[in-house]
Design a protein that fits this description.
By secondary structure, this protein is an alpha/beta fold. The chain contains eight helices and eight strands; from the N terminus they run βαββαββαβαβααβαα.
């Protein structure tokens, strides 16, 4: 079984579309993790809904603990996926079930909304991932459950950047990072709300600071 864990932030309504992208079947489990005290107007059918203390790291950890599948795919609530991406995820999960060597898998990034300039951000994120081995959580981390457990999951003390810290932990452990066929499309709403240049600059500065801090084993 492939367990798909979807953490949704407080008041996040952008998660309403994603579960409908994900097929129903005996090999797919959908786990939506809401922040405590939050609720959605409606819940997609055959989706398990949990609550956990607010914070992506805590919500992902709750989803991992509750998931039944041998392979876990963590998707941000505002993500969208297509048939090619789903097929690649299922193929990877089947390979792990057959005994393929553990790896932290990820997909290319795209944006399903926002200004045209978001193509630059997607291009940069995909180069960063391929050339420097630095995929981020909005690229849909997929791995055997045992890999997530061996790395201790996601550290809630990091705050922003728990996914970046997780990738560094995987690299320090010598685990391979594997790009899968397909892409995960995410929302550009933060860029729309706060401005493209300002948000892009903030992300670049934060990424650089985190890279240096995590390389030293510290918290950014």
């Amino acid at each position: 079984m492939l367990s798909i864990v979807i953490p949704a932030g407080p008041g996040d309504r952008d998660c309403s579309a994603l579960p409908y992208d994900l097929p129903l079947g005996d090999d797919i489990e959908r786990v939506l993790v809401l922040a405590e005290g939050d609720a959605l107007p409606g819940t997609p059918p055959s989706t398990r809904v949990l609550t956990a203390p607010a914070g992506r790291a805590r919500q992902i950890s709750a989803g991992l603990a509750a998931a039944h599948g041998g392979t876990v795919w963590v998707l941000h609530a505002d993500s969208r996926v297509d048939a090619e991406t789903l097929a690649a995820a299922r193929q990877a999960a089947a390979g792990f079930a057959r005994g393929d060597a553990p790896a932290l898998c990820w997909f290319d990034l795209a944006f399903h909304d926002g200004p045209a300039a978001m193509a630059i951000n997607a291009f940069g994120a995909n180069l960063r991932s391929r050339w420097f081995g630095m995929p981020f959580g909005d690229q849909g981390f997929l791995a055997p459950r045992t890999l997530f457990e061996s790395l201790g999951g996601f550290d809630p003390s990091v705050g922003r950047g728990e996914d970046h810290a997780f990738v560094h932990a995987a690299r320090r452990a010598g685990l391979p990072l594997r790009r899968l066929r397909g892409r995960v499309a995410t929302s550009a709403r933060r860029y729309v709300d706060h401005g493209w240049w300002r948000t892009t600059r903030e992300h670049l500065v934060l990424t650089w600071r985190q890279r240096r801090a995590f390389a030293r084993g510290a918290t950014a």
